[in-house]
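TEACHING EXERCISE
Course module: macromolecular assemblies
Task: Read the component lines below, then compare them to the predicted structure of the full complex.
Student: A.B.
Group: 4
Components provided:
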Amino acid sequence: MNCNFSHEEIDNYFEGEASVESSKVVSEHLKTCEECKVYYSSLVMTGKLIDTDIKLQESIFKNIENRIDRHKYRGKRRLYYKFTNLISRKSSILKPALALILLCFITIMAIGNYSNIIGSMKPDHNKVASNPDMSTEDVIKTLISSNGGFTSKLLVQSPTGSSANKEDLEQAKSVIIKRLNILSMTQHEVNVDLPNSCLNITGAWINKNNNDFKKTLTDLTVPGKLTFQETDTKAADVNGKYPRAGEIICDNNDIVSADYADNGVPGQKTINIKFNAQASAKFAEATKKLLHKQIGIFMDDNLLVAPVVQEEITDGNVILSLPDEANPDIIRAIISSKPLLSKVEITDIKFVNN
Amino acid sequence: MYEENILINNILNGDIDSFSALVNRYQNRLFKFLLGLTFCREDAEEILQDVFIRAYNYMHKYNCKWSFSTWIHKIAINTFKDFYKQKRKKDFVEYHEDLSLYKIDSGVSIDQAYESKELYKEVVEQINKLKSDYKIALILRCAQGFSYQDISKIMGVSVENAKTMVCRSRQTISNGLKMKRGVNYEL
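Instructor-supplied answer key:
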């Protein structure tokens, strides 16, 4: 009773999908094989049972009608559903595109996180500096441990040559702080040491741009009085220095702001100085008087430049073209602050963690 | 197919009459399918209503590139499965065997009619013993007349798998009957 006749062929015969030849073979076989006849009978019975012609007595729509939201695809919502329908129709394009965008996004996020991890290994200057829980001293210590920094002692002498009093030290401190702030190379703290007439500076590098900082600090400790004067270039001495030939027109105290400027000449170092109203008027008068003559711009006793006045300057804006050897950062830091009234000298400077 | 797409487009423009037309077009076909799965008129009708409600609510997600018949049969299968999941949880009711649905050929004797009824009962029992997916594949093929290609799309299986499921279902039913009755039975 173990017939090996293919049931698949009987299935095809039952479904009417067998070829004429195969139909003949199956038909003949079913006449003789009881086992296959039983199988075929079960196919017929199953088919009869499930392939009925039973129909619903009435439309079920009446029952459904009360259970659906008739307004679902009307009004404003219609646009939303039309849009989602469009998306589902275009899903074969949108799905891979979205997958690609997601992949790019994850990659960018992963790279961003990696950078953050790398970044978090070193304290971020801005984060450390803006942390309200840390004192300035702690902030500087933390930055020195990661970026390196310096400590320095500045001896301050009063303008009269005697030991500096508290007022002299405070004036020097405010000027030095202002100049260091404008230079933006360090995160720093300046403390007054009254008994020793000193200022103690502790600073941490912001960008490790600390090349020859001793010279930078020395440059920053000059009195730094910027004056615009009438001068006589023909009267230069053997060292090339000009004597002051006229009255001072204006100085640092008249400057409202000093910013980097671009006079359109490549490589030319320029600073745009803006005078206050009172100095602007004085400057306008002076430039009128000195039209087509030189005006001397001095830093302390040294002549920085002596440009020829081309026209009367009435708006109080002066573009100062610096000589090649001048450091515009230092000049800007100095002229943005008041002049140092005391004599300041570096007695000690030490570099930490460099 | 073209007419169906017009109806669906109208439905998405808020035309409820088009939905009524779509229900009328598919209700008997789906009823037959669900009857084959449930062997119970009440359940089949209840599921059928849920199928059309679901289809209406998700009509905006229908992609007209695919056959609507395939799409709605997919919904019918999911609704059928959900229906019995809930029902089993509620009162542990098993599949029905409503034999009053099936006509006995006229002109047969009482004995023959009784015998036929008994036989049907046994076939239903065997069908109900099938795994859910095998049963669905069998009904899609025997009652709905879908090609194996369509069955594979509806059920999300390969064409070969669809064929195997139908073939094994038939053999299982035949073997079950043989075990009960031996080889001496026929309609």
